[in-house]
Write a structure and sequence with these properties.
74% helix, mainly alpha, globular
Length: 206
């Protein structure tokens, strides 16, 4: 059934924090399924590495692959719980995020073989950029989150630029590579934690 014209692109406003119950949408369940399949691919790579006796590198590669899949999923789930008008633009945006996940999943076997990680980074960049677009959509209708939106978008530009430096300017799987990856992951976690606590304070104030 085609969407009504008004639902092609409408305001992305915050849900009522006192809403008693909200079931997951079919689109969110599909997003979850894509992430689960990608993580299963990572688990298969870990199993192969362990069977070859590459315990340390196998676990490190699995944790890296798991993070670049789990962290965006975690942030999107958190976002969708508070903002979702289910218009056509929102659905397309989420599908673009799923394309990014599939690119990451397709690159995972190469990652476990110690090869190039460029395609995995491109998938991650698509995924995170699409998520940033969702944040931009809430800026006008949720002025109390304007600072959060700006911090998110600027932070993502900086962090993704840092990831690009790691991917294109360092030797994959070298010591400096691992050090910089650890810094990038810490930055991602810190930025996400800032948004979580800021939004929680806003909800409590309501």
């Amino acid at each position: 059934m085609p969407l009504p014209k008004k639902n092609y692109f409408s305001s992305l406003v915050a849900r009522d924090p006192h809403e008693p119950y909200r079931a997951a949408t079919q689109l969110e369940l599909l997003f979850d399924l894509v992430v689960v399949i990608a993580i299963a691919t990572s688990a298969h790579g870990l199993t192969h590495e362990l069977s070859e006796g590459h315990f340390v590198m196998g676990i490190i590669k699995f944790l890296l692959a798991f993070f670049i899949l789990w962290w965006p999923w975690n942030l999107f789930t958190w976002f969708a719980s508070g903002f979702d008008n289910d218009d056509a633009a929102y659905r397309i945006n989420v599908m673009v995020m799923m394309i990014g996940i599939m690119l990451v999943a397709a690159s995972i076997p190469t990652i476990f073989q110690g090869g190039e990680i460029v395609y995995g980074f491109i998938g991650y960049l698509i995924l995170r950029s699409a998520a940033a677009v969702l944040w931009l959509r809430i800026k006008d209708k949720s002025p109390q989150l304007k600072v959060t939106v700006q911090r998110n978008v600027i932070g993502q530009i900086i962090i993704q630029s840092f990831w690009a430096y790691i991917v294109f300017m360092t030797e994959p799987w070298s010591m400096i590579f691992f050090i910089l990856v650890a810094i990038a992951i810490a930055a991602e976690l810190f930025l996400g934690a800032c948004h979580f606590f800021e939004r929680k304070m806003i909800i409590d104030l309501r």
